[in-house]
Amino acid sequence: MSFLHEVDAINRRRRARTVDLVRELLGGRIAASGAAFKPNSDDIRDAPALDVARTMHGLGGHVRVLDPAALHNARRAYLEPRHGDSALDVAHDADVVVLLTEWAEFREIDLEALGQVVRHRRIVDGRHALDDDAWPSAG
């Protein structure tokens, strides 16, 4: 049981660290990529993604969320934050993009197109799923 408690504590710290990173980047307009507990699922029960999005919203961030499968459940369960129709729609004018669920559609997004719609080219990889070479080289 102590092992499970430690795993839970690590997960809570990871969520808090993601929020801290966004706050350090002064992200007032936040594009949250993901709501589901894991990719290829519509399960939002105890989803770190929604917890982080709600926390950022509660701290005054203007958060827009997109998830390919879990958006309907996220909308039913949480009236705020706002939701979007596409990854580029959610990222439009964002100060920071936050990867919260490692969907292939988010990891493989057209970096040039994304760079053209955001206000600032800042990303927080809350899942450690992005290519360490491709993203920095795209600015």
TrEMBL record:
Any Pfam family: UDPG_MGDP_dh_C
UniProt-listed SMART domains: UDPG_MGDP_dh_C
Domain UDP-glucose/GDP-mannose dehydrogenase C-terminal as annotated: residue spans: 31-132
Coiled coil stretches, renumbered: none
Signal peptide feature range: none
Gene3D superfamilies (alphabetical): NAD(P)-binding Rossmann-like Domain
Protein name: UDP-glucose/GDP-mannose dehydrogenase C-terminal domain-containing protein
Organism, as annotated: Actinoallomurus vinaceus
Lineage summary: Bacteria, Bacillati, Actinomycetota, Actinomycetes, Streptosporangiales
